[in-house]
Automatic annotation (TrEMBL):
Residues 4-41 form the Glyoxalase/Bleomycin resistance-like N-terminal domain. It comes from Rosistilla carotiformis. It comes from the Bacteria. This is Glyoxalase-like domain protein. Pfam families: Ble-like_N.
C-alpha cells in the first residue's frame, strides 16, 4: 500500500473552510465527508480532514489551539515560484492570511507561509532539486 498522510484539523465553520481549501486547489472527496467532516484532497497521497469542533472533541479532549497560536507548520510543495505566490494571493482573498512569516528566497528554494480561516499554518514552497545536488 502506498504511504499516505491524513492531516486532521479542527475548524470553526466547516462550509467556509471547505470553500477556502477548494479555492487553494484541494478537491472534496464526498466518500469521506459528512455534516461534521470534510475530506479535502491535495494529491493522491495527501489529504486534509476538516473536522467541526464537536467532531474533533470525539478524537481528543486536548484543547483546540486559538487561531493566533501555532502547533505545527505543514509544508506543501508547489510546481514553481508562481504557484507559491498564487496560493498566498488566493488565501488572502478567501479569508486566510498571507505571509504570516517573512518570505524566504534561498535561490534553490522559495517559500511563503499562509494561515487558513482557523489559523492553521501552511508553508507553500518550491525547491529546485538540481540546485541542491551542486
Amino acid at each position: 500500500m502506498t504511504k499516505m498522510i491524513f492531516v486532521n484539523l479542527p475548524v470553526a465553520d466547516l462550509k467556509a473552510s471547505m470553500a477556502f481549501y477548494d479555492a487553494l486547489g484541494f478537491k472534496n472527496n464526498p466518500q469521506f465527508s459528512d455534516e461534521a467532516t470534510a475530506c479535502m484532497v491535495w494529491s493522491e497521497t495527501i489529504y486534509v480532514m476538516l473536522l467541526t469542533h464537536h467532531k474533533w472533541r470525539t478524537f481528543t479532549s486536548r484543547p483546540i489551539p486559538s487561531a493566533d497560536s501555532s502547533e505545527v507548520m505543514l509544508a506543501l510543495s508547489c510546481d514553481d515560484r508562481e504557484a507559491v505566490d498564487k496560493l498566498n494571493e488566493v488565501a488572502a482573498t478567501h479569508g486566510g492570511t498571507a505571509d504570516i512569516n517573512p518570505k524566504q528566497d534561498l535561490g534553490f528554494m522559495y517559500n511563503r507561509n499562509l494561515a487558513d480561516l482557523d489559523g492553521h499554518v501552511w508553508e507553500m514552497f518550491w525547491m529546485d532539486p538540481s540546485a541542491m545536488q551542486t
